[in-house]
Design brief:
76 residues, 24% strand, 2 helices, globular, alpha/beta, three-stranded parallel beta sheet
């Protein structure tokens, strides 16, 4: 299997900030190991993005509502 060192990863976060706070050091480590990798996060509740709003290791933050038909226009 070929090791991928660049590209985009979209993380989908569906609820509160607790999980994201615990995940933040992992995201920092991934970005350190793979600096060309673009980390993007999709949030359903906008307030859950607070821990990473200004994080230099996150390339882009997306927001959407709970309705599935709102998801694709948010990403593209």
């Amino acid at each position: 299997m070929k090791k991928v060192t660049q590209g985009k990863v979209l993380l989908i976060h569906t609820w509160g900030i607790g999980d994201l706070i615990l995940l933040t050091p992992v995201l920092q480590a991934v970005k350190t190991l793979y600096p060309l990798l673009e980390l993007e996060i999709l949030f359903f509740p906008k307030s859950a993005a607070i821990p990473v709003t200004d994080a230099p290791f996150i390339s882009k933050i997306h927001f959407t509502g709970w309705k599935a038909n709102l998801l694709l226009p948010t990403l593209f």
